Amino acid sequence: MQPAVLQAISAWEQHWDETQAAAVTALKIAFPHLRECPRHVGCDDLRLEYEETGLGAGRVCVDDEGRANVEFDQMPNAVIADAVDEIQLPYLDDADGPLCEAPPGTYVYECEGTAAQYEFTLGTLGHGRVVLSFVTIPDAVAVLDALQRAFDEHDVSAAPH
Questions:
Q1: Residue 75: which of 139, 120, 117 has the closest Cα?
Q2: What is the per-residue pLDDT across 114-148, written as a single tens digit (0 to 9) for each?
Q3: Is 155 helix (H, G, I), strand (E, B) or coil?
Q4: Minimal CA–CA distance to 62: which of 79, 45, 48, 78?
Q5: Is the model's pLDDT at 161 over the cut of 60?
Q6: Torsion sign (Cα): 14, 16, 18, 159
Q7: How many CB atoms are closer than 10 A to CB 49?
């Protein structure tokens, strides 16, 4: 390759690494319980995880397209519902009103503009699941921030941030 092309690729890689680092920083600020984990062999995703009593456990991955995938389990239903109601997604399948008034079940929003999928499960035993797939970093940060503030409002976490 020409030296100018090699230099351009190098500049792009440096910018991409900085962009990914900024994404990780934003995700960790929104949900301070996340900690960085080593990358798996054969996987280019940046990986963050958490596990805390009362908060559940899960992971956030930033893929090589700059999108976030989130899987959180054993989160209190009230926290999930309050966070989802706050962010006001335009439409959740099978939800006839605010999620805080919904029965246990799985509620999904598919964004046609970004191809992202948001799935929120309210469990029958008081704890549910949050799964976000191929979500833009700003949207993932907004959901994580809403979840953190809902935890704070419900005083689920005694950990300062």
A1: 120
A2: 999 999 999 999 999 999 999 999 999 999 999 99
A3: coil
A4: 45
A5: no
A6: negative
A7: 15
The pTM assigned to this predicted structure is 0.89
H or E segment to which residue 128 belongs: strand 127-136
Paired tokens of 4: 């100018």
User: Tokens representing 69?
Assistant: 């995938």
Give Cβ neighbours of residue 124 (< 8 Å, ≥ 6 apart): 104
Say which residues have a Cβ less than 8 Å from residue 85's Cβ, sequence separation at least 6: 98, 99, 100
Considering all CA atoms of the chain, what is the largest pairwise distance in Å, rounded to the nearest integer? 62
The Cα angle at residue 52 between residues 49 and 55, in degrees rounded to 5: 100
From its phi and psi, is residue 42 left (phi > 0), alpha (psi between -120 and 50) or beta? Answer: left
Query: 63-103: per-residue pLDDT in tens?
Result: 888 899 999 999 999 999 999 999 987 777 777 788 889 99
